[in-house]
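Annual report, structural modelling task.

Input specification for the S-adenosylmethionine complex:
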Amino acid sequence: MLLTPFEGDRFLFAEIVRLCAVHKIKTIVETGTQYGSTTRALALLADQVVTVEMASFSVFGLPPNVLPLHMDSPEALRMVLPDIARPALFYLDAHGPDKTPLLEELSVLTKQVLFDCPIVIHDFQVPGKDFGFDQYGDQTVNLKFISEVISPLINAGFSIVYNSQVEGARRGACFLIPKKE
Ligand SMILES: C[S@@+](CC[C@H](N)C(=O)[O-])C[C@H]1O[C@@H](n2cnc3c(N)ncnc32)[C@H](O)[C@@H]1O
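The model returned the following structure:
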């Protein structure tokens, strides 16, 4: 169990700090709260954090600007998107041992007009690196896996960037960045 933010990866934290500053992020939405260690760090970076967890979880010690939701992440995204202050940053980190809601989450996000909002996907296969990533049977969480669902973002000029340095759990991350940068 890693109780440090971003599973001990300060490079990832630093990149999210940078994205929040450049994009003037007002709200962060995290899917997959688990122990809330990353949630607490995210709460330092935006006026409001919405964090979503499907399993039972403790909200003890979460800062007052955190709204914890105990529900399925795509459903939570559908529910909160109309009301959150924007720009928002989405940190997609919900997954279990056998499945991930990632495609459904991205499908919800790309159906809304969210073209000012960066999206960060954790546990993503980074080309040419030995960083960790998720795999479900013969499905690898990589660009091929998400390419169809993110096509509206690509058509809107989003760029796809990966993390280049890791520490802690050494997991890959994919950043979908609005045109602005
Ligand atoms: C890797 S952990 C999240 C780690 C946390 N974000 C952190 O940085 O410390 C993934 C979490 O996603 C949750 N999860 C899995 N599927 C989900 C879903 N459909 N909706 C919400 N949470 C989900 C799991 O219960 C698990 O606690």
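Residues 6-7, 30-32, 34-35, 37-38, 52-55, 72-73, 93-96, 101 surround S-adenosylmethionine (CB under 6 Å).
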